[in-house]
Amino acid sequence: MTTQTLTHHKEGSWEARHNKEAKALFGFWIYIMSDVLLFGSLFATYAVLHNNVFGGPSAGELFSMPFVLTETLILLTSTFTYGLASVYAHHHNRKDLVIFWMMLTMFLGVAFLVMEVTEFVKLFGEGASWQVSGFLSSFFTLVGTHGVHVTAGVLWMGGLLVQVLRHGLTETTVGKITTLGLFWHFLDIVWIFIFTFVYLMGAI
Amino acid sequence: MTNDFKVIDEQHEGGKRAIVSYVIGFALSIILTLIPYFMVVNHMAVSKTLMFGVLLFALVQFLVQVIFFLHLSKKSRPYWNLIVFAYTILVVAILVIGSIWIMDNLNYNTMNMTPFDSNEGYIPSADR
What we know:
The structure holds two protein chains of two kinds. Chain A has seven helices and no strands. By secondary structure, chain A is an all-alpha fold. Chain A has one domain (12-203): Four Helix Bundle (Hemerythrin (Met), subunit A), CATH 1.20.120. The radius of gyration of chain A is 20 Å and the shape is elongated. By secondary structure, chain B is mainly alpha-helical. Chain B has helices spanning 5-41, 47-68, 78-110. The longest helix of chain B has 37 residues, at 5-41.
């Protein structure tokens, strides 16, 4: 795969392949925008329902703030480590460092998911399930949808890691690293709004 | 992929700049997360001010991440990316603000119907 990339380094074919990558990236950008609309409607639902506690617990009574801050910092760090993996793939052609930073990112992603599941289980144990009130239904839907996206991102990263290990840093794998980067940074941005609207504003 | 030393040099330069960009973005994000967090946890203002403060920090953080992580300004087709992005933000803003607005009005008009809120059906008693 690598040798193929080396020998086919004619100006025209490289240009064509580069154009294809750019198109794929633009297509993925459009998908992310549709995901923004999905999260937008879930945020709107949460904004409307967050006071409808129906005698159950409210946001301020449920969440542990240091726990949520840790989750946030883990996800922020993971987006940074992924950025480093992407830089080493694009500019330095360092397969070892790309694999290192991607594995670290995956580890942080899994840590984030473990914390989120722990929080959900704890809420469930306290009797704060999604059937209790409109607030909890919209909370679990919004945060759970984000969690499902992170899960998909972690699985995707695992698959990409295998491809990088097998084929090295080719035009194709580097293109995929860029695409996954777009997704991963996007999930971090969504979390910033969950952190602000759900957790911080809930604690005020 | 690159046998030309000049190209390698340029790539390393670009790489350095990219790393610096990620480090700045990361540092700013951490700061912009910690400040509103401690503002809220220590109740440093009245709740209305805190709400606006926290919202402002989220918006600044959003811009920081879009610029330093998504590199929206440096794409091969910034024109189309930006147009789609701006349109999506517009739709989400209409969706969220519109929902809050309409449902608030609905709550206002249907939930608090005590006799004192409207003069229909309220008959003042003679002995008070």
